[in-house]
Amino acid sequence: MSRPIRTVRLAAEDDFDGWREAARGLAMVGAAPGEVTWQVGDKAADLFATPAAAPPAAVGAFSVARPFVELAKSVICHSDPERFSLLYTQLCRLRENPLAMEDSADPLLRRLEMMAKAVRRDMHKMRAFLRFRSVEEDGATRYVAWFEPDHHIVRANAGFFVRRFASMHWSILTPEMSIHWDGETLSEGPGALKADAPAGDPAEEVWKTYYASIFNPARVKIGAMLKEMPRKYWKNMPETALVGELIKSAQARESGMVAASAVRVGDNVGTSWEAVRAEAMACTRCDLFRCGTQTVFGEGPLDATIMFVGEQPGDQEDLAGRPFVGPAGQLFDRALAEAGVDRARTYVTNAVKHFKFVQRGKRRIHDKPNSGEISACRWWLEQERTLIRPPLTVALGATAARSVFGKAVTISSLRGGPHAVPEGGEAWVTVHPSFLLRVRDNREEEYARFVADLQRIGERAKELA
């Protein structure tokens, strides 16, 4: 005979404390995840559930891994109505297996981590894209902002704004709720409409002037800008009205900036490269960050004439954190030496910065990146090429060629000569060294052809240096 379904009522969508207390009590009495329905406020519960009541009081205590508690605090703020049940399911698993948080391949854990990531991203966007506008209120100035979050993040984010704007009196209005700070006390109010927020104020003109003066055309990446700052936020940000006109004049302004700063380019490139690399270490642009041990960024002199682009790091590269150090890298080094190209004077990187693999027993077997993963990671390659500006970019294999040219191409059609690329310089195409490790017939001939490609590339590099 099945046991009745229990209904737990939480005070709010982001009621972490209420969920934790209820989950602890339910787990202590052995309530299975399928026997519990979670309800927020007066929202309708499951049709077959028992009336909402206080959860059973916990008798005794138990502990779970700290990472789960931190994960749950974020996931609770997600908009997915299943989040309470999913977290309780994971809690029950942890009671049976304390190491369940270490199973990165578990679908439930991965789903929870993706939900937490979405919440953190939404919180970041609120901090980055929220804009206050001043209004006069009883002879004093108050600052009001409108924001439309994707998740229930307002309370979780309130502390940031209190610390950041401690001396201001402000209100943040959202469809779900509003928060108000009077310089001493933070209070909450009901949700609002966008019409309740002011449309603009004189201070915006000053801000627009400042924004226009610091706008850096050399860093304009339309696709990346839209990915990081979706258009849904533009209507609330006064400076976005300037973006179109600033982009139109970007090319002329960039030329002037490059000429004026030529003497400082060495220091600037090194600093910028370090910043890009540091950012790439935390990249989550696609799901491959869950596969590899770490991001494997490019390496080499930043004034290199030749940039070699491979497909992705392999097993040994993933463990070492450096490109081309495994069997294919050793073959690559030998071929470069025979071709008279000094690897130490080249920059070596990959189209995809994380190792994609299939687990077979204890071995991690290479798995080819798909087009979405290549596109997601192309942003990092673009940053490397923009900073280094190599006269020669060499695509090693079809994946690298797709990333360099921005479309699928065949090695046979492009191999053996230079090709122009929109970013400037020449692009050459040849096989990836791993191809030579796999080929069975005519291996010596294929290797000799590869060395000949590298020799021509090296000679061309000397002409362009």
Account of the 3D structure:
With 465 residues, the protein is an alpha/beta fold. The chain has four domains: 6-123, no CATH class; 130-196, no CATH class; 204-260, no CATH class; 263-464, 3-Layer(aba) Sandwich (Uracil-DNA Glycosylase, subunit E). It contains 17 helices and 14 strands. It has a five-stranded mixed β-sheet, covered by helices on one side. β10 (357-360) and β11 (363-366) form a beta hairpin. The longest helix is centred in the N-terminal third of the chain and has 23 residues, at 107-129. The protein is flat, with a radius of gyration of 28 Å. 29% of the residues are buried.
Give the arrangement of secondary structure elements.
Elements: E1 6-10, H1 16-28, E2 36-40, H2 66-75, H3 83-96, H4 107-129, E3 132-137, E4 140-146, H5 154-164, E5 170-173, E6 177-181, E7 186-190, H6 203-214, H7 222-228, H8 240-248, H9 250-260, H10 265-280, E8 306-310, H11 315-320, H12 327-339, E9 347-350, E10 357-360, E11 363-366, H13 371-388, E12 392-396, H14 398-405, H15 411-414, E13 419-420, E14 426-430, H16 433-438, H17 443-464
Helix pairs in contact: 2-4, 10-13, 12-17, 13-14
